[in-house]
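Hi R.,

Here's the chain you asked about this morning:
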Amino acid sequence: MTCIEASDIMFIWLNHDLEKPQITDLTTEFLKPDHDNTTRAKATEPKSMFDRLRDEISSYVDRDPAVRSAAEVIFTYPGFHALLWHRVSHRLYRAKWYTFARIVSALSRWFTGIEIHPGATIGKRLFIDHGTGVVIGETAEIGDDVTLYQGVTLGGTTLEKGKRHPTLEDNVIVGSGAQVLGPFTIGKNARIGANSVVLKEVPPCATVIGIPGRIVKTAELRDGKCFDAYGTPVKEMEDAEAALVTELHTSLQELQIRIAELEDKLAAQQKTDPSEKV
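And the predicted structure, written out as tokens:
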């Protein structure tokens, strides 16, 4: 029995109730085909453990075009495995079995390369793509349908107890290598570009890039189905620095034209009155 299988059994045991299907139905439930690769409607909440897990698997199918089947997600995706481990460690943490929770978390890090503190609060359908190097701190809070890429850190900037890690609201996308540091909120539908360092609150529907992070685009309304790989809308985003350089170049051209006009006027005056000196 592998460690992943053992974690799955622990997860099932911790979530067991009499209304859930028998364990013998596990493979059938997981491997039911799902050919709809668009974002699924979330009007109704999953009723059983198997429904919840199928919902998580479907989120990977929806957001990763490389996925060919649910079986690929179950057996080969470290982000999905890390979430299963975290469900176990988080329950142990809430039960105040802190040492056991940290042991499970450490095992998860060793086998997946993803470090999620047992105290972190994670919503539904978190998609961790690739996953290597992702770090999620103890007081971090993650909403529903959030996407994290490899190398993302949701970290703190203080040694004091209490809230010290960020809160990501629903539908946030954080690009690879981005560092989100501090106890502030990233608003719904916000996008954090790859390798950005975010140190302050981000409003809903905003796009942030750079070090330190700066807002380069804010949309008034997004439908929630928009998806930008690595949090970077390359087809629609205008580079703020390029726009500034263009503006400065235009201003310089206007000044040069104005100086030329003044020189022409001065030359004309000197011709009409040769005795006048500058």
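Confidence is low (pLDDT under 50) at residues 1-6, 9-43.

Let me know if you need anything else.
M.
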